[in-house]
């Protein structure tokens, strides 16, 4: 693995001295790719690059351009696939926009490349490549679950001789830290494994998973990756909300991801000395529904005081989920035990949806048929009050909120967080 060479020590010194004011030149990025990616992996071979969609901050246009320059000119083929998981599929036009590829670039620089989006919604997309056994699941989950789980992957990967993962690493509510093999599972995987490990994370609770490097869910996706009989290489980024590149690793999937997660743990986690009775998190435009905007809750839940209020401020969000909205509007948002004590009533709901529900609602108790979340989650979005009541969340009119009223009041127990959803806040 090639991290960022001598820049590694420089990065760490600057992290301490300048408050994370670190960036990488395009020349340095290209050098790291070339040094960390042996030519034997890609020369005269067909290469498929897996990337995030627009819900992840990173300098993706720059990275796509550099990958083409560093690898594409010597590869037999260089194609790209957006690993959307179960996010809405993108057209080729939207993919090119995401990658910053102009019509002229498409004709002159990427004329031999094809651009795909993972079609999780089409059964013919998938190829079954194995299973997790009941014994493996029981061992990895610490006895929480015991079941046989099918491992299905986008069959298109077998048209290639190298899979290249290109994506950022952040604290993550389901896996611990995103990136790495997560671009395979759930990035381009089938639903059974996806729903299984999302539910495993929910049973364990977000607090026990998020921002932790070694988790049972990470073990699951690494175990699943072993079933893919193809070379897989990783280009792992660490970025800040301005999408500037602050760390970059090229190498073996596990090693590159692990090194990036170490840096992410230093720059993507903020520690507070005390909890706050009111926390307002402003969601960035890249979260266009509660399915992704719920990350504001995941990253801020731990610094909200008991019986406090967490406000997801996102006037631009007008829907719960284009993919799973019907399910969520039917069941609403609830604490984990609300589902665990009556799973039979929700057997027809995908467990990934149940996991999302509990993650957004947060921790709490369910006793004698009465549910009591630890905190109140309030939507200040374009979703109307009636819909918020239907899904069991609070409502505030975003037009009546003055952001300035929440700023600079930490001593009063009020915290404002801009661009919420990627930086994890924890208590000391």
Taking all residues together, what is the mean pLDDT?
Answer: 93
The tally of beta strands, per DSSP, is 19
Low-confidence stretches: 2-21
Rg over C-alpha atoms, rounded to the nearest angstrom: 21 Å
- CATH level 1 class label of the largest domain: Alpha Beta
Indicate the proportion of strand residues.
15-25%
CATH architecture assignment name of the largest domain: 3-Layer(aba) Sandwich
SSE class: alpha/beta
Strand order of the largest sheet: 3-2-1-6-9-10
- Name of the CATH superfamily of the largest domain: LarA, N-terminal domain
For the terminal residues, how far apart are their CA atoms? 33 Å
The CATH topology label of the largest domain is: Rossmann fold
Biggest beta-sheet profile: 6 strands, mixed
- Share of helix, binned: 25-40%
Task: Quickly count the helices.
Answer: 17
Number of domains: 2
Spatial shape? globular
Account of the 3D structure:
This protein is α/β, with parallel strands linked by helices. It folds into two domains: 7-267, Rossmann fold; 270-427, Alpha-Beta Complex (2-enoyl-CoA Hydratase, Chain A, domain 1), CATH 3.90.226.30. It has 17 helices and 19 strands. It has helices at residues 7-18, 26-36, 39-42, 60-72, 92-99, 103-108, 134-140, 191-204, 206-209, 216-225, 253-267, 290-293, 295-300, 325-331, 336-340, 351-361, 385-390; strands at residues 46-51, 77-82, 115-117, 126-132, 149-154, 162-168, 171-172, 176-177, 232-239, 245-252, 269-272, 276-282, 304-314, 364-367, 370-373, 376-381, 394-395, 414-417, 424-427. The strands form six sheets. The chain has a six-stranded mixed sheet, with helices on both faces. It has a five-stranded parallel sheet with strand order 17-16-13-12-18. A hairpin with a 2-residue loop joins β14 and β15. The protein is globular and about 65 Å long.
């Amino acid at each position: 693995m090639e991290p960022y060479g001598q820049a590694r020590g420089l990065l760490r010194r600057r992290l301490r001295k300048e408050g994370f004011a670190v960036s990488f030149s395009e020349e340095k990025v290209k050098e790291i790719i070339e040094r960390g990616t042996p030519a034997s992996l890609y020369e005269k071979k067909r290469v498929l690059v897996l990337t995030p969609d627009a819900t992840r901050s990173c300098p993706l246009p720059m990275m796509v351009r550099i990958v083409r320059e560093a690898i594409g000119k010597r590869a037999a083929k260089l194609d790209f696939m957006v690993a959307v998981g179960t996010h809405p599929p993108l057209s080729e036009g939207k993919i090119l926009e995401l990658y910053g590829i102009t019509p002229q670039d498409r004709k002159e620089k990427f004329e031999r490349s094809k651009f795909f989006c993972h079609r999780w919604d089409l059964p013919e997309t998938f190829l079954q490549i194995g299973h997790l056994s009941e014994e493996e699941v029981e061992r990895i989950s610490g006895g929480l679950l015991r079941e046989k789980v099918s491992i299905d992957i986008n069959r298109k990967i077998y048209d290639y001789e190298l899979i290249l993962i290109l994506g950022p690493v952040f604290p993550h509510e389901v896996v611990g830290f995103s990136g790495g093999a997560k671009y395979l599972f759930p990035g381009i995987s089938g639903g059974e494994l996806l729903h299984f490990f999302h539910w495993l994370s929910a049973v364990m609770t977000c607090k026990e998973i998020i921002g932790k490097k070694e988790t049972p869910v990470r073990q699951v996706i690494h175990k699943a990756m072993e079933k893919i009989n193809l070379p897989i290489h990783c280009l792992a980024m660490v970025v800040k909300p301005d999408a500037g590149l602050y760390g970059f690793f090229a190498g073996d999937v596990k090693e590159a991801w692990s090194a990036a997660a170490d840096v992410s743990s230093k720059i993507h986690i903020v520690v507070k000395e005390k909890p706050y009775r009111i926390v307002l998190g402003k969601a960035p435009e890249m979260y266009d529904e509660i399915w992704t905007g719920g990350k504001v809750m995941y990253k801020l839940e731990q610094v909200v005081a008991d019986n406090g209020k967490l406000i997801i401020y996102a006037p631009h969000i007008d829907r719960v989920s284009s993919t799973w909205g019907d399910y969520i509007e039917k069941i609403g948002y609830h604490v984990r035990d609300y589902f665990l004590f009556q799973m039979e009533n929700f057997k027809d709901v995908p467990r990934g949806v149940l996991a999302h529900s509990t993650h957004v609602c947060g921790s709490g108790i369910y006793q004698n048929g009465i549910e009591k979340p630890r905190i109140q989650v309030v939507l200040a979005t374009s979703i109307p009050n009636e819909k918020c009541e239907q899904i069991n969340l609070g409502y505030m009119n975003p037009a009546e909120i003055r952001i300035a009223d929440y700023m600079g009041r930490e001593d009063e127990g009020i915290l404002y967080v801009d661009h919420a959803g990627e930086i994890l806040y924890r208590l000391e």
